[in-house]
Amino acid sequence: LFEAVPCIITVQDKNYKLLRYNHEFAEKFNPKPGDYCYHAYKGRDSKCENCPVEKTFEDGMPHHGEESGVGKDGTKTHWIVSTSPIKDSKGDIVAVLEMNLDITSRIQLEEELEKSERKYHAIFNNIPNPVFVLDMESLEVLDCNESVKIVYGYTKEDIINKSFMELFEDEDKDHYTFKLKTSNTVNQVKHLDKGNKTLFVNIRVSPSEYLNQKVLLVTTSDITKRLETEQQLIQASKMATLGEMATGVAHELNQPLSVIKTASRFLIKKISKNEKVEDDIFLTMSSKIDSNVDRASKIINHMRQFARKSDMDLEPVDINLVLEKAFEIFSQQLKLRGIEVAWDITDSLPKIMGDPSRLEQVFINFLLNARDAIEELEDKNSHQGYENQQVREKKIYLRTRCEDKIIIVEIEDTGKGIPPGIQNKIFEPFFTTKEVSKGTGLGLSISYGIIKDCGGTIHVKSSEGKGATFIIQFPIKDSD
Fold it and tell me: pLDDT tens for residues 206-262?
C-alpha cells in the first residue's frame, strides 16, 4: 500500500531526515541516501519556516497545507501536504508520516486563468470606447470600463448599480429600453453626460454572460464631433448650392418686383397729376402689389429656411411635397437654361421617416447635377460641330411610386451619362467628374449620407452619352 498509493509519502524523524519514502517521491525528487526533507523537496539547507512536520511533532496532531518546490527536472512543483504522527508502544511520537498530493497541473491552470483574466480585464479597461455590462432584464449597470469616465464623466462608483437608461433623456427612455432589448445596433442616440451635456452615440449590443448571469454587453461610440463635422459640410454644401442658384433666384425675385414697381409708379403718376384713380383700377393695382409682395416673401422665406442650419431630426415626411419644394426653389435655374421637367408622380404616397430640409437639399443637388450633365453634353456636341445634327432634348424626369412597402424616387436626365468604370466611385467624398472650380465632389457624398441616415438606399443606372437615372429607395414609416 505504501508503494502503490498514487501520491508522495515520506517518513521523517525529528531532524527531518528521510527515514523512508515511496517510489513516487523518488521519481519526482531523486533524494540522496541520508537526505533531509527540506533539501530533497526544495534544495534548502535548513528546515522550512512553516513546517507541518514540526507542528505534528510539537502537538501530536495532523496538519495540512500547500507547498511548492522544484522537481528533479528543474520545474516548479506544487502539492497539498498532510502530516500524521507515528507513535511507539508508549505513545511517544517517534516519526511523522507526510503525504503529499501533486496539484501542479491545477495550480498551473489557476495561474493561466488568472493571467488570462488580467489580460482581458486590461483589454476591457483600455478599450477606447465606453463598455457597459447590463443586467438583461433591468438594464442595471453591473460593470463598466475606464472609458466611461473619459466620455461621460462618471466614475465606476457613480454609475454601477444605476440604470443605464439614466443616460437617456426622459422622453426617450421607453423607446430605447425596447430597442436595447431587441436590437444589436442603435445609431445616433442622444445621451447625457454627468454635466447634463448632450452627446450623440452609436450603440452596439451583444448578449453575454457575467458572473453566471445573462447580461447585455453594450458598447457606445461617441460620434458628436463627427456629426458636427458632417453638419458643417452639409451647411457648406447648402451655401454652395445657394450660390449656384443665385442667378435663378434673382430672376425669380425680379418678376414680382417688376410688377410692384409698375403698379406703384402708375399710382404715383396718377396722384402726382391729381388724376382720379378709378376704384376698380385702384383695387386691381393694390391687389397686384399685395400678391407679388407675398410671392417675393415666399421666395425669400423658402431660401432662408433652406439655408438654415438644422439638426438631423427624423419625422414623417411626404416625399412628393419635398420633391416639389426642391423643384420650386430650383425651377428658375432650369427654365433659364431651357431644360424641361417631366413629372410622373404617384399621389397620396405613404410617408417615410426623414429630415425634410436635408432631403430637399438632396433633391436640389440631383437637379443641379442633372442640369450640369445636360449642359456638358450640349457643350461637347457643340464643340464637335453637331449643332445642326443630333439635337437631343434637354429634359429631366421626376418619378415617385410605391412598391412592396418601399417608396421609390427616380431622377433621370438626358445628359452625358456616367462611364461604367466610375459609377462605383461617384458617392465617394471629393470624387467629381466636373472640371476644376466647377465642383467639390461633396454633393453626392453628402446626399448619400443623408439618404442613409433616413434609412434609404441609392444607386445609379447610366450609359455614357445616354443620360443617368438615380434611384432612391426609402422604407415606409411604420404605422403607429
Answer: 999 888 889 999 999 999 888 777 777 766 666 666 666 666 667 667 778 888 888
Question: DSSP assignment of 271-303, as one string?
Answer: HHTTPPPPHHHHHHHHHHHHHHHHHHHHHHHHH
**Residue entry with cell 422622453:** 171
- CA dist 308 and 103 (Å) reads 73
pLDDT band at 409 (very low <50, low <70, confident <90, very high): very high
Burial class (CB in 10 A: 0-12, 13-18, 19+), 477: middle
Report whether 394 contacts 416 (CB < 8 A): no
Cα separation, 382 vs 380, in Å, equals 5
Question: Taking all residues of the chain, what is their mean pLDDT, rounded to a whole number?
Answer: 84
Phi–psi pair at 168, nearest 5 degrees: -100, 155
Q: Taking Cα atoms as reference points, which of 80, 85, 90, 107 lies closest to residue 7? A: 80
Amino acid at 353: M
CA 62 to chain centre: 63
Segment 277-303, tens digit of pLDDT: 888 888 888 888 888 888 788 777 766
Grid cell listed for 168: 437617456
Burial 350-368 (b: 16+ CB within 10 A, else e): bbbbbbbbbbbbbbbbbbb
- SS3 state of residue 41: helix
Phi, psi dihedrals of residue 342, rounded to the nearest 5°: -105, 130
Beta partners for residue 186, in sequence order:
203
Residues 145-167 pLDDT 10s: 999 999 999 999 999 999 999 99
Strands 395-403 and 340-345 come out as parallel
Whole-prediction pTM: 0.50
Angle at 182 between CA 181 and CA 183, to 5 degrees: 105
The alpha carbon of residue 152 and the mean position of all alpha carbons in its chain are separated, in whole angstroms, by 17
Identity (one letter) of the amino acid at 24? E
- As a whole number of angstroms, the longest Cα–Cα distance in the chain is 152
**What are 415-454's pLDDT values in tens digits?**
888 887 777 777 765 555 555 445 444 567 778 888 888 8
Q: Please state, in angstroms and rounded to a whole number, the distance separating the CA atoms of residues 364 and 330.
A: 7
First vs last Cα of the chain: how many Å apart?
A: 80
Q: How many CB atoms lie within 10 A of CB 285?
A: 19
Signed CA dihedral, 171, 177, 182, 185: sign only: positive
DSSP-assigned letter for residue 140: B
| Cell numbers that stand for 8 in this block | 508522495
Where do the DSSP E strands lie in 375-453? 395-403, 406-413
For 83, the 3-state DSSP assignment is strand
Q: Choose from 66-70, 188-192, 264-268, 428-432 the range with maximum mean pLDDT.
A: 188-192
